[in-house]
Every structure is written in structure tokens, then in C-alpha cells.
Amino acid sequence: MIAFIKGKVVSYTMDSVIIDNHGIGYRIYMPNPSTLVLNDEVVVYTYQHFREDAQLLYGFLSQEDHDLFVRLISVKGIGPKIAANALAASDTKSIIAAIENGDAAMLRQLPGIGPKAASQIVLDLKGKLVDHSEPQQFDENLMDAMEALKSLGYKNSEINAVIKDLKSEKGLSV
């Protein structure tokens, strides 16, 4: 509903910040709000979460963080607080790398994520967090090879691992 809020940082606590947007103060829960500077103007990408007893805004300084947060809360057993705490404890690229590499041990080190949740995150999100929209950069033979691998039952994450090596090679046949 609310995609982002642009405004001045009025105050912050350990887990939230208040942004003044044209005289309205929005409390936004976010990872590491203490990195913000009081009275600076910021753009915060938001996710509105509804519960029986509350409506909460979660915010992020980058669209990448926001997108990872939304993916994380789609996993069974991972709520907004756990996802926000995970993003506060580690950077987005490290979390995505751990998921893509199946590194559940790294994910278990994040606050609130146990062995079951870490395995579920890898199971649900592996291969879904990397950008698969580069077909215009591939030559036709490479595209045909990718389609053949898909039809043989290989997953996108497995194909992407091979494609990275093959992108540097020129003139290969299917």
C-alpha cells in the first residue's frame, strides 16, 4: 500500500525510526535505525504489515533489502521481526549468497533463525533470489543449451552455476 516514505528523521530507537513527512510522523520499524542522522532527509522503502492488534510499517534504505525482506517473510515460520533482525545482523548480499549456496549454517547464525527455519529458507528461496533476466546478453546457442537443460529437469540455480562459466566462452555449440 505505502511503497516508500520520504521525509526528515525526527528520532529513532533501537528498532524503529520516526520520519516526518509533511507534518505526519510515521513510526517505521527497520534494521539498524541508528545509522540514520537526525534531521537528514531520507527515502525509506516500506512494507505494511497487518495483525489483529496492530498495523506496522517496516522500512529499508534500499529496494534490495525490501525485496529480500518480502521474500523472507514468505517462508513458513519467518515473521517480519525475525526477517528484520536477520537483515540487521547481516547484509543482503551475504544472506542471498548463503541461500543460493545452501549454507544453512550461516543462516542459523542470524538471530531468531534455528536449524528448521534455515533449512526451510534454503528450500523455499534457493534459485529465486538471483536475477534470471539476462537472456538478451546470451548468444543463441547458449539460450538453446539453457532451454535443453531446463527440459531435462535441471533447476535454474544449477543452470546459472554453469552459465557463469560458459558466458566467458565464445563460439560454443549447443
How is the topology of this model organized?
Blueprint: E1 4-12, E2 16-21, E3 24-29, E4 41-50, E5 55-60, H1 63-73, H2 80-89, H3 92-100, H4 104-108, H5 115-125, H6 140-151, H7 156-166
Helix pairs in contact: 1-2, 6-7
Strand and helix order: EEEEEHHHHHHH
Helix content: 25-40%
| Helical segment count | 7
Global Rg? 20 Å
Shape: elongated
Strand portion: 15-25%
What is the strand tally?
5
For the biggest sheet, the summary is:
5 strands, mixed, barrel
Strand arrangement within the widest β-sheet reads 1-2-3-5-4
Low-confidence stretches: 132-138
Care to describe what's here?
- The structure is a single chain.
- With 174 residues, the chain is of the alpha+beta class.
- The protein is 40% helix and 21% strand.
- The chain is built from 7 helices and 5 strands, in the order E-E-E-E-E-H-H-H-H-H-H-H.
- A 5-stranded mixed beta barrel has the order 1-2-3-5-4.
- A hairpin with a 4-residue loop joins strand 4 (41-50) and strand 5.
- The longest helix has 12 residues, at 140-151.
- It starts with a strand and ends in an 8-residue tail after the last helix.
- Residues 132-138 have low confidence and may be disordered.
Based on the model shown, name its key terms.
alpha+beta, five-stranded mixed β-barrel, single chain, elongated, 5 strands
Describe this structure in a few short sentences.
The protein is an alpha+beta fold and 174 residues long. It has seven helices and five strands.
